Amino acid sequence: MALLLNSHPRWGLAIEYYPKIYTRDAISAHFCTSLDGNVSWRTSAIATISDICKLGQTTQANSIQRISSGITLEKLKDLLELTRFPSDFTNFALPSLVEGSITLMSSLEPTPFSYEYGYLCFRILVFSLNACLIDHGYTLEFTIERMTNAPPGTHLDLFWGGAADLICAELSPMVLGFEQRLTHILNPSPDQPPALQHPKLTMLF
């Protein structure tokens, strides 16, 4: 009840309150709850991904305002429900989802993390960025297969591990005996377009 009283009608809980409901244990407990009471969550999630991707593909202020105004806190929560299911991680492997999440985060005042809304945008950004890295490293299908076969409650550990292994391979390939698969992303050639536009990153600072 106290949390509801401190909730903004659009942005959700303030930073003084929302970290308490997004701890590792709290998220694990939420994954054990049923989605039966929210029959349209998947439709909402996929539509919200589409809308956020549109934000990543436009620079027009009117379009950004129109699209972002329709992306509610509940829709962000629906989108993040996809992380319960390994097979749905393919939906996050979209560079435009990373860029759109940055645009959405930047709309919050005074900072992107002032409210729950911005934090959920950040979570979507992080899931998407890691999924893109794994996809560019040609191991997304393998990672999802490992996640699918993982013991209950551990599939996210394998997701983060999949991205970490690729990054470690770039930093210490000889020591770890890993193959470098992200060089074209982390150190692109002059004639290669970047996977993520630099102006999007500067919006957060």
Structure description:
The protein has 205 residues and is mainly α. The protein has one domain. Helices cover 56% and strands 2% of the residues. The protein has twelve helices and two strands, in the order αββααααααααααα. The chain has a two-stranded antiparallel ribbon. Helix 8 runs antiparallel to helix 9. The model has no long low-confidence stretch (mean pLDDT 86).
List the main descriptive attributes of the protein structure presented here.
205 residues, mainly alpha
Instruction: Please give the order of strands in the largest beta sheet.
Output: 1-2
What gap, in angstroms, lies between the N and C termini?
34 Å
Number of DSSP strand runs: 2
Report strand %: under 5%
Order of helices and strands: HEEHHHHHHHHHHH
Detail the poorly predicted runs: none
Radius of gyration: 18 Å
How many H/I helical runs? 12
Give the helix level as a range of percent: 55-70%
Look at the structure and give the mean pLDDT.
Answer: 86
Most strands sheet = 2 strands, antiparallel
**Coarse shape:** globular
Structural class, by secondary structure, is: mainly alpha
Tally of structural domains: 1
